Amino acid sequence: MGSPHRPLLAHVFRGTFVHSTSSSPMEILHGHLLGVDERGTIVFLEETHQQEQLAKKWGFKPSDIRELSNHEFIMPGMVDTHIHAPQYSFTGTRVDLPLLQWLTKYTFPTEAKFKDSDFAEEVYTRVVRRTLKNGTTTACYFATIHTDASLLLAEIVDKFGQRAFVGKVCMDLNDTVPEYKEMTSDSVQETERFVRELLEKRYARVQPIITPRFGPSCTEDLLCALGDLAQARDLHVQSHISENEEELKIVEELFPDCQNYTELYDKNKLLTSKTVMAHACYLSEEELKLFSLRGAAISHCPNSNFSLSSGVLNVQKVLKHHVKLGLGTDVAGGYSASMLDAIRKTMIAANTLQINKVNETGLTIAEAFQLATLGGSQVLGLDDVIGNFEVGKEFDALLINTKASDSPFDMFSTDKFEVTRTGLMLKKKCDDRNISEVYVAGKQVVPFSSSV
Ligand code: GUN
Ligand code: FE
To answer: What does the cofactor section's free text say about binding (predicted)?
Structure first.
């Protein structure tokens, strides 16, 4: 389709679109037409009465239009701002210990197995398939300390067409499982190699990210070298901060010169406008101010925070400080790889703070939806590319079918869309069975093509 004078259109959808904008956490556009060009860019989103004009301008015919039924709608792909790809191998099991004991007993021994690239290939293929199928169009992955296996994760992400940041984990301290750590100089050199080799691949939508594991597993020499590297190559950074009270005590003991945990990263040039820190449950007002000043972001991982009894992030307090905020599954601290689950757990976390009179109100489902989509794109510095359906952005989207044949919930004749939109994310327990198609940059990636 298309006239010879314009870029060809790859898709025209007609129906209901649900997304967040800067002025509305959830805007519902019934009776709209959305066009995507062959590069995957959204070229129009207009009311259907504009169809004739649009058809003339973009050269499409009525038969080119994909008509959604009234039990379907399109929403932006979700952004998982914090997920550990290797830990997918034990997701949903082994969440019976607090963080530090959980790392020692289950996580480090599992991650050590990724030296074996056959095992890595199996797990990484599964995690990319599972997250894509659950509507994660963009993921910010931790891999392991193994450079080649981490490069393999990037290759698999690219093959399936997901958008992602991939980080080779850096850690030069580990008293409890000493075989799972690196020498400081190796960690830096291997990170340099990882970044160089990943960038040489020129994947369209997969980027490297500098990944010190967290304060207790890094010397200051390592943090300093990684901060220099991030600055020199203008790279994104991810880590964990203030997840658990025991962790905080260790950081205080290890780094007595730092006023607080945030200063440890800031001092080493790891707290920048390209940084995302997971958890942040126990940050002080002062630390949040520094996050805001630096433009650094937080990934809220409520499933993990509940599962490992870590803490509860006060989302409203973070937003009051104008700190960028997104949601993460934190597989396998979190037992679910689904961002719809992260939305639900975000609501529950806010409710617990309300019950305990920490906050007067909870969050709305619309606000949680915004965090999972537009919020996540801001956290990863991708908000000029994805996050909603603004013209000029790339079409990362999910087609939701509320009446999928194996749908886990029932729809009633009295259900209005208003009920559906809130219910879908929460009461109705929408899951991957209701995500019938997934698009990244205009390319359909679910159902999976037979070539992957
Ligand atoms: N802190 C350091 N490493 C980890 C990890 O793998 N998961 C979580 N939840 N917290 C961490
Ligand atoms: Fe984590």
So the answer is: Binds 1 zinc ion per subunit.
Q: Which ligand is nearest to the CA of 174?
A: 1
Ligand nearest to the CA of 143: 1
Residues 79-105: pLDDT tens digits? 999 999 999 999 988 888 999 999 999
Looking at residues 40-47, what average pLDDT do you find?
A: 98
User: What is the DSSP secondary structure assignment for residue 181, as one 8-state letter?
Assistant: -
Among 380, 403, 436, the domain-final residue is 380
Q: What angle do CA 298, 394, 133 make, to 5 degrees?
A: 70
Pair (71, 204) in one structural domain: no
Residue 84 has which token pair?
């550990």
pTM of the model: 0.97
- What is the rounded end-to-end Cα distance, in angstroms, of the chain? 27
d(CA 151, ligand 1 centre) in Å = 21
Q: How far is the CA of 142 from the centre of ligand 1 (A)?
A: 10
Last residue of a domain, one of 380, 408, 432: 380
Res 210: pLDDT: 99
Helices (H) and strands (E) in the chain, counts: 16, 17
Ligand 1 pocket, residues with Cβ under 6 angstroms: 84, 99, 103, 107, 213-214, 240, 243, 304, 330, 333
Q: Could you give the number of structural domains in the chain? A: 2
A 10 A CB-CB count for 174 gives: 18
Residue 84 alpha carbon, nearest atom of ligand 1 = 6
The per-residue pLDDT of the chain, averaged, comes to 95
Q: Residue 444 Cα, ligand 1 centroid: separation in angstroms?
A: 32
**How far, in Å, CA of 36 to CA of 17, rounded?**
14
pLDDT digits (tens, 9 = 90+) for 427-448: 668 899 999 999 999 999 999 9
The pLDDT confidence band at residue 5, using thresholds 50, 70 and 90, is low
**Is there a single domain that holds both residue 336 and residue 359?**
yes
Tokens coding 275: 């940084």
Task: Write out the residue range of the structural domain in which residue 307 sits.
Answer: 78-380
| CATH code for position 421 | 2.30.40.10
Residue 10 confidence (pLDDT) above 60: yes
Quote the pLDDT of residue 138: 99
